[in-house]
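User: Hello! I'm new to structural biology and keep hearing that structure can be predicted from sequence alone. Could you demonstrate with (wild Malaysian banana) hypothetical protein? Please show me the input and the output so I can see what each looks like.

Assistant: Of course. The first part below is the input, the amino acid sequence of (wild Malaysian banana) hypothetical protein. The second part is the output, the predicted structure written as tokens.
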Amino acid sequence: MSGGGRRIADDELVSKLQSLLPAEYIKSLQREMDDLSDRLSVLMVTMDVNSPEAEIIRSLLGGSREEKVFFSSNI
């Protein structure tokens, strides 16, 4: 990774957050994340993969390999 930094693993991030934030707040954030994930999944299934909206979602998601595979498999 550029800049000499390392990417923090999801599990490590959750562990660090748990030590800093109240448990109920973390649970609330996890529920919100799950809801957003579900909504995004529905949106991705119903949209035209070549639309400007699909391009915006890809750019927001960082264009990871998983999203590229999803969109290319639905063309």
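User: So the tokens describe the shape?

Assistant: Right, they're a compact way of writing down the 3D structure. Reading them back into a model, for example: Residues 43 and 54 are 9 Å apart (CA to CA).
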